[in-house]
UniProtKB/TrEMBL annotation:
It comes from Chlorella vulgaris (Green alga). Keywords: Hydrolase, Protease, Thiol protease, Ubl conjugation pathway. This is ubiquitinyl hydrolase 1. GO terms for biological process: protein deubiquitination; proteolysis. Residues 175-231 are annotated as: Disordered.
Length: 520
């Protein structure tokens, strides 16, 4: 009979159950493991010989994380497994963390620790790349690729400014600027797309119109071996690194304001996230011992719908409505410049910020009129990550200043589809009850549950974290099956088998879903 497969536990190094549960959860996501392996391999393959040590993941944080995740992979001899010690990883984390974060001997929030870990690993990889392969590749790449990759983080931006002189690279002087001009790039152009968040689409952070979010037209391919071919190959390496500079948990949301009267949308503001915080619907009952029960029908889908729902904003000054009111109040014999503005309004053209138009009107002796209106504010998804980490916020402060915990189950499922009416995408106007757009994909993105982190006890600096994790490979990433999945419950060094029914009844604090690939 084959030995039963299982995973080792994680040693508690003094109130570090938050870290152990986080490591177990990350270890269940094959895309995280593969991402770290590819990133370190890329650093090693493309680093100059003199920077091999620096390219190993500066400070040892990334290799230590990868070592822990590898050690927590399912193994055949379940009974003979030894617990994994996170001591070296914890020391590396505390050495890099801000003062007061992850202090020894204190209980910490698992979601905050996960975000901090992801951010520090990203900084670690960016610093290693900036010290090694970046210096080698940046001299051979196109200006556009260098500027785009430099937006991947502060370490790369600093390296970009230092490489070949900051004026040559960022201000547009010298050989780099000449190369950019030959490629059709305007002088001194800084990349406006949100690096690493567009997932193949260029999202202009200064644009107020998102209807033009279409895949870019592919450029003609240069001949292999030519100078242009070598530049294109280097550009591809920089682009590949851009995708590896952040862990697969990184996504992005956008915040839109839409005028109810004229339907004009404001400037899109993009914000990246590692962990998506969601509220929980609570029951209309009195608080008991600092706890309040979740609503009977509380669900993950309901929390997502509330997060991505509409919110009314009164008294907002819509650029289009204010400009129209200002032009209507003026005389009919407007100067040609103002006539063009009126024509833009009639044609529904794209508008910029109101300060620009108020200055134009003031120069012509016209008064800018602020016309308050009702606007609809909503959050939309600009980029969905490979690993979707959802935090069900079970703690909040009451009006009396007490820390309250939301108890009771919140319904979630093993498979999480994200249709557009539940999680709207940037640039799509279809909402629930409407008609799908012509480019609406036939099937929504599908995510499979990989781990559930549970917090037991109170919230005020106490309690304990445990985690349920799936042992099967993610559908589309391996040979795992969607039905009959194997689950275990890990509480520090203690690991036992768990049923799917037990997992679904858990009072989840953090849920990790992994995106299913097309092959699944």
């Amino acid at each position: 009979m084959a030995a039963q497969a299982g995973v080792p536990g994680v040693k508690n190094c003094g109130n570090t159950c938050y870290l152990g549960s986080t490591l177990q959860a990350l270890a269940s996501c094959s895309s995280v493991l593969r991402h770290l392996e590819d990133a370190l391999a890329m650093l090693s393959d493309h680093a100059p010989p003199t920077s091999t040590s620096k390219a190993a993941g500066g400070g040892g944080l990334t290799p230590q994380l990868l070592a822990c995740l590898n050690a927590l992979q399912p193994q055949p001899n379940f009974a003979a497994l030894r617990s994994v010690s996170p001591r070296l990883l914890l020391d590396a984390l505390r050495a890099r963390a801000p003062a007061g974060a992850l202090s020894a001997g204190l209980e910490h929030d698992a979601a905050e620790a996960l975000e901090l870990l992801c951010d520090l690993v990203a900084e670690d990889l960016q610093a290693a790349f900036a010290c090694g392969a970046w210096q080698h590749l940046v001299k051979q790449a196109s200006l556009a690729a260098v500027l785009d990759a430099a937006g991947g983080g502060p370490a790369l931006a600093s390296a970009a400014a230092a490489c070949n002189g900051s004026s040559a690279l960022l201000a547009g002087d010298g050989a780099m600027q000449q190369r950019g001009a030959e490629e059709g790039q305007p002088p001194g152009r800084a990349g406006s797309s949100l690096t690493g968040l567009s997932d193949g689409y260029n999202i202009d952070s200064t644009s107020s119109n998102t209807d033009d979010l279409v895949p870019p037209v592919p450029a003609p391919q240069p001949r292999p071996g030519s100078a242009a071919g070598r530049v294109a190959q280097t550009d591809r390496l920089l682009s590949a690194w851009q995708q590896h500079a952040w862990l697969p948990l990184r996504g992005a949301n956008a915040h839109e304001l839409s005028c109810v009267r004229c339907k004009h949308r404001s400037t899109v503001q993009l914000s990246p996230f590692m962990v998506l915080p969601l509220g929980i619907a609570v029951a209309p009952s009195a608080m008991l011992l600092g706890n309040v029960p979740a609503a009977v029908d509380a669900s993950l889908e309901g929390s997502l719908a509330a997060f991505y729902g509409y919110e009314a904003v009164r008294g907002w000054h819509c650029t289009r409505c204010c400009l129209a009111a200002s032009l209507d109040a003026a005389a009919d014999d407007l100067p040609p410049q103002q006539q063009r503005l009126r024509q833009m309004l009639a044609d529904g053209g794209q508008l910029v910020e109101s300060e620009t138009y108020s200055g134009l009107l003031a120069a012509a002796g016209l008064r800018w009129i602020n016309k308050p209106c009702l606007a609809a504010k909503r959050t939309v998804a600009a980029r969905l990550p490979l690993v979707l980490c959802l935090q069900l916020r079970r703690g909040f402060w009451s009006e009396e200043g007490h820390h309250v915990k939301v108890t009771g189950p919140v319904h979630f499922s093993m498979c999480l589809p994200l249709p557009r009416h539940l999680v709207p995408l940037l640039g799509h106007d279809w909402a629930g009850g409407g008609t799908p757009a012509a480019d609406e994909p036939p099937l929504p993105p599908m995510y499979d549950l990989r781990a559930v982190i549970v917090h037991l006890g109170g919230l005020a600096g106490g309690g304990h974290y445990l985690v349920y994790r799936c042992l099967d490979a993610t559908p589309g990433h391996g040979t795992g099956s969607r039905s009959g999945a194997s689950w275990v419950c890990a509480s520090d060094e203690a690991v036992r088998n768990a049923s799917v029914q037990e997992v679904l009844k858990a009072e989840a604090s953090i849920l990790l879903y992994e995106r299913r690939t097309a092959a699944a």
